[in-house]
Amino acid sequence: MSTSSHDNTINDIPAHERVNGDKKEIHPDEEAIPYLNDESPNAAIEQDMGVTKIEALYLVFGNGWKLWALWGSIALISCAYALSQNTTYNYEPFATSSYGEHTILGTISVITSIMAGVAKPFIAKLADLASRPWALTFSVLFYTIGYIIVAASRSVNDVAGGQVIYTLGNTGIDFVVTILLADITSLQWRGLVTGLYSLPFIPFAFVAGEIASGISAYSANGWRWGYGMFTIMIPILIAPCIGILFWAGHRAKKVGALSLASSTYARERALTGSAPVARTMTGTCLYYARRIDAVGLLLMGFAFGCILTPFTLSSTAIGGYKNPSLIALLVVGGILFIAFCMWEWKMASHPIMPARVFNRSLICAVGINFMYYFCYYISDTYWSSWLYVVKDYSDKDYTYILNILTVGLCFFSVVGGVIQRYTHRYKYLQLVGLGFRVIGCGINYAIVNGHFTDAAIVTSKVFQSLGGGITVISSQVAVQGSVPHADMALAMAILSLWTSVGGAIGSAISASVWNRRVPEALTARIGHLYNETEIAEIFGSINVAKLTEPRAEVIAAYNEAVKPLFLAALLTSFIAVIFGCFTSNFYLGENHNDIEQKKAIRVRKEEEVRPEILAAKAKELEEKLAAEARAGQL
């Protein structure tokens, strides 16, 4: 279960040759559905229906057009998601500025980071309890509703509310597809396949500039169509994947492939037949509420929201941190966080962070990604706003500059995946990546200390993307490989949760510093030319700030304001390197993970997945288990 005392000697033995630390030879042609193998040290882990369904679903595809249709539909999602992320992320400063409330950007960033963190354990539980396609359908629905609200907004509150709802859907789409890819690939290919999924971000980064320019996305209302177009595109482009997954799930159940995928399901069928468990509506709601740990998710979300939001509001609240409302939020947040810890420790029947999944690989990966996102959001929550004010780029060039990081992250994640495939290791590669991130943060700090050139701006983002692409892909592989398949989605959710919390804390600190230092710097530089109301107007909109004269003084004010943020990002980036030194370095081989002996699900020949063959195998297995039950052997 939390078998993660990976000492260095055992780590050098491929997992598929090991049982409880001892070498065991496994025939290379051994059946690739060893889910009935009770010799597994994790055989006692209960496998949720969603995991069983995805393992059974892949049995019915075979090596034909159906398999290619599945991969093609995932590629469509990749393209749609990449285009969405490469464009809409850049519109948010202009959406808030159009209402004269650019300062609320930090608050939105904090809340959406918390939402993204809380959403992933929920989505993971939904994907495990129901199925991957149901979780994907749920995510698309919330994505669409959220962006409809933003596109039709009449106030900055509508923008914020829509972004929160959209975040649940957007996070879910990306997370479910990541789970799907991890479900069906071995450790040696995991990093590369995950990197390839993000590859469309690269060409669409260049298309994004043309789109932004074509719809005048940075004008007063052009951003509305920038959001609205994806409420049509995303559902249409993701629908094929959802349809294929539902079809395959129905077919797998019809031919009995669920029994072949899970010994737990087969035993239940053998003992009870196909009769479902009878529950009332209330009983059903309570059952699933316990399984997804609804109380824990709510306590955690509200706790972090109450604790971090005051940092983003302190500069605009009357009395700052002495404001009674902010004090109340901090106190309530502290109480809720304590309640969350007690609930998870003592009361939750299915906690979102069960002790069995915590191991050295997961703990170190959490530390690395927490600090990675903490550093990133400290410096980059307002980086695009700062750049827009201080540099005179066209809309197209501005979008290209903003997408350097995205392009680099996607490209270097593929490079990292290739290296992992042929070295079968990830630790030292990740340490190299963390080192490049430190260099990138150093260049970023140098920019506001006299090295204010286009070359420095581009170079800083290239180095940060080089380090980030390798770092993130390595953390994902480490976590996915350190737990059995039944716990994989939950372990991934825990990593993403604390990654998002790191980003939320970074955003909160960034918003607090930005909202205090920018008005102070503007007042010090141009306060003799503009009154307090005019200064507030300049601060409230980056469009106004960019046109304000004397321009040199405005640029100097913004550079002075962001300097401590860039320095903090540089200093804290070293902490991730420390975590990287202590992570494990297990072998990335043909297995699905480093814990179980089962290999990743392999593609079968068409004749092996004929319905009558699968149905016969399932019936034979269930009859065997039923006979054993009658004989008292179960």
Automatic annotation (TrEMBL):
<dbReference type="InterPro" id="IPR036259">
    <property type="entry name" value="MFS_trans_sf"/>
</dbReference>
<dbReference type="GO" id="GO:0022857">
    <property type="term" value="F:transmembrane transporter activity"/>
</dbReference>
<protein>
    <submittedName>
        <fullName>Uncharacterized protein</fullName>
    </submittedName>
</protein>
<feature type="transmembrane region" description="Helical">
    <location>
        <begin position="67"/>
        <end position="84"/>
    </location>
</feature>
<feature type="transmembrane region" description="Helical">
    <location>
        <begin position="104"/>
        <end position="122"/>
    </location>
</feature>
<feature type="transmembrane region" description="Helical">
    <location>
        <begin position="225"/>
        <end position="248"/>
    </location>
</feature>
<keyword id="KW-1133">Transmembrane helix</keyword>
<dbReference type="GO" id="GO:0006811">
    <property type="term" value="P:monoatomic ion transport"/>
</dbReference>
<feature type="transmembrane region" description="Helical">
    <location>
        <begin position="565"/>
        <end position="588"/>
    </location>
</feature>
<keyword id="KW-0406">Ion transport</keyword>
<feature type="transmembrane region" description="Helical">
    <location>
        <begin position="294"/>
        <end position="313"/>
    </location>
</feature>
<dbReference type="GO" id="GO:0005886">
    <property type="term" value="C:plasma membrane"/>
</dbReference>
<feature type="transmembrane region" description="Helical">
    <location>
        <begin position="134"/>
        <end position="152"/>
    </location>
</feature>
<keyword id="KW-0812">Transmembrane</keyword>
<keyword id="KW-0472">Membrane</keyword>
<dbReference type="Pfam" id="PF07690">
    <property type="entry name" value="MFS_1"/>
</dbReference>
<feature type="region of interest" description="Disordered">
    <location>
        <begin position="1"/>
        <end position="24"/>
    </location>
</feature>
<feature type="transmembrane region" description="Helical">
    <location>
        <begin position="164"/>
        <end position="184"/>
    </location>
</feature>
<feature type="transmembrane region" description="Helical">
    <location>
        <begin position="357"/>
        <end position="379"/>
    </location>
</feature>
<feature type="transmembrane region" description="Helical">
    <location>
        <begin position="196"/>
        <end position="219"/>
    </location>
</feature>
<feature type="transmembrane region" description="Helical">
    <location>
        <begin position="325"/>
        <end position="345"/>
    </location>
</feature>
<dbReference type="InterPro" id="IPR011701">
    <property type="entry name" value="MFS"/>
</dbReference>
<feature type="transmembrane region" description="Helical">
    <location>
        <begin position="490"/>
        <end position="514"/>
    </location>
</feature>
<feature type="compositionally biased region" description="Polar residues">
    <location>
        <begin position="1"/>
        <end position="11"/>
    </location>
</feature>
<feature type="transmembrane region" description="Helical">
    <location>
        <begin position="399"/>
        <end position="419"/>
    </location>
</feature>
<keyword id="KW-0813">Transport</keyword>
<comment type="similarity">
    <text>Belongs to the major facilitator superfamily.</text>
</comment>
<feature type="compositionally biased region" description="Basic and acidic residues">
    <location>
        <begin position="14"/>
        <end position="24"/>
    </location>
</feature>
